[in-house]
Amino acid sequence: MALELYHSDHSTCSQKVRICLAEKGLDWESHVMHFASGDHLTAEYMKLNPNGVVPTLIHDGEPVIESSVIVEYLDEIHPEPSLVPADVLDRARLRIWMRYMEEVPTPAVRVPSFNKVFRPLRYENASEEDFQARIEKMPLRKAFYRRMGQVEGFSEDEVDNAIAQIRQTCERIDAGIVAHGGPWVLGKQYTLIDVTLTPLIQRMADMGYGPIWEPDLPEMTAWFERIKARPSFATAFYANTNVSEKYAQFFTDGESE
Ligand SMILES: N[C@@H](CCC(=O)N[C@@H](CS)C(=O)NCC(=O)O)C(=O)O
Q: What's the total number of domains in the chain?
């Protein structure tokens, strides 16, 4: 099968798919997208992904978008090793987790990420006109960028809420491991929820937010160590895929926001 991936090195949604591809041992052709040059907002790319975001998988010429849909699709076209439980109730539990992951920690991680790195990197030195023009082109994220603002960044309240949502996610990972007997979130089987939570937790760890879970969530802390020991982690997180490395200029004081 011919697989291509339009992705960005440091994008968490791209990392979700790269981990899944590595777990499945699949070969794929890489198309790296550069947000600063607006690669994801060109008319040509938006024919593949009308949402103007990465990642996009191309399978035998057909585009599949949305990282959660892509990882489920990969599991269906390449079922071994399976990343979805066989048991019907466990499958429901996986879907419940996937919905939560999309709704809570995925958007929450964007808030500190944009405050610390992406807003200053992409927009601080842009003219107001360029910033507004970029927003106008975005099919999905206009409100997000307006809330952030070119200069202000997200408010303290919004950052606090995002951190509380990440903390809730970490508590649920910890509790899930206890309830299902570990070592993975849904028990014995490593599944798509372990795959898709990984880049979110890695981004937070990379930005210095490990203290959100490290002091008092030992199961989750140990889970994250197991995650990082899997070969798929090293494959998906190649050089310059962590923002602290790629954009080291924002990490000179070693502090998180
Ligand atoms: N729900 C989409 C979200 C994809 C998404 O937000 N991708 C980000 C990178 S992680 C992006 O392309 N952002 C472009 C931008 O901020 O302009 C998915 O899971 O694939």
A: 2
